[in-house]
Amino acid sequence: MAARAAAPARSGAAKIPVLAWDQARPAPVVLVSGPEELLAERAIRAIRATLTAADPSLEVTDLDATSAALGDLTTLASPSLFGEPRLIRVGGVERLSEAFLTEALRYLEHPADETTVVLRHAGGVRGKKLLDAVRNGLGGGVEVSCAELKRDADRSAFASAEFRTAGKRIAPGALRLLVSAFQEDLAELASACQQLIADTRGDITESTVETYYAGRVETNAFAVADAAIAGRRGDALVLLRHAIATGADPVPIVAAIAMKLRTMARVFDVRGSGGQVASELGLAPWQVDRARRDAQGWQPEGLGRAIVMLAETDERVKGAARDPEFAVERLVAFVAARGETER
Fold it and tell me: Which helix (H) or strand (E) holds 91?
């Protein structure tokens, strides 16, 4: 399995065990919570594998909480003629029907013997009454947390564990390239890892990753700018160095950062809907929305310092400095720190 992640802390003392996704185990009721679908699928698959290993006659059924009627859960959990153990996988609990809520709360009071009910809740407030009941211990359940892997370190640990589990070695630079190429979708990252594991012999190097995923690894100016402005310093520097190594000119990279920083500055303190602000500033609504997202986590002073350094770097990459590559690297690091570090 991939990297073990500690289950996130929850406000208030938990009355049932809260497990990381790769620690999933059967219980009368298992709440699989969180938005990361790949991790949820793996957790549920692991529960099924454990139950099947204990008894190959396991009966597996699926139930949609959004359309379930009164009696559906009880019927599926009822003992069969031959008494096979059951696994009932319930999807869509974050959109559950009132009928399912009523029956599930009733079921928790007397869970069926030899039955594991997995409740998949991807997030949101709907179904809170059911979640609270499970978390307070009704039904004797456990919770499996499948929180989104947002940090670069978490995604890198996930990918590294994929290779380690398969007995494959991947160079640190190759791992950084791979994670940067698939940073938006964990399922795609997992698929890329499995392809490299299946198709390559020996250690996986940067050259291997570039050969397989040149189109994803290939960097442009806006990819560098996006990573820097989002505060992903490591990703931004990897992308920048790859861009320069493949012949990219520092000037358009600086221009891409400039475009984003200046748009952020224009919308920073402006109130109103995206459409209203776009009309006032002569921008498209999506540009306003994107600039507002980019500005999250920035302080006005840091943004001002970054724009000042941007102007200085623009001069340097256009002939005022002997090493334009160093100048743009320095700018990228400063922007990734949101203008809050010493220059």
Answer: strand 86-91
**Which region among 5-9, 288-292, 305-309 has the lowest average model confidence (pLDDT)?**
5-9
1 located within any domain: no
| Mean pLDDT in residue range 87-114 | 96
Q: Which of 145, 176, 209 is where one domain is finished?
A: 145
- Residue 45 carries which side chain, given as an amino acid letter? R
The CATH number of residue 309's host domain is: 1.20.272.10
Residues 332 and 262: their CA atoms lie apart, in Å, by: 15
The predicted structure's pLDDT at residue 215: 64
Does 134 fall in a domain?
yes
Q: Please report the pLDDT score of residue 220 as a whole number.
A: 66
Do 133 and 29 belong together in one domain?
yes
Host domain of residue 304:
221-336
Residue indicated by tokens 């189109």: 215
In DSSP terms, which residues pair with 18 in a beta bridge?
143
Residues 214 and 135: their CA atoms lie apart, in Å, by 46
Supply the pLDDT for residue 216. Answer: 67
Instruction: Measure the CA–CA gap between 292 and 100, rounded to whole angstroms.
Output: 39
Whole-angstrom Cα distance, residue 288 to residue 282?
10
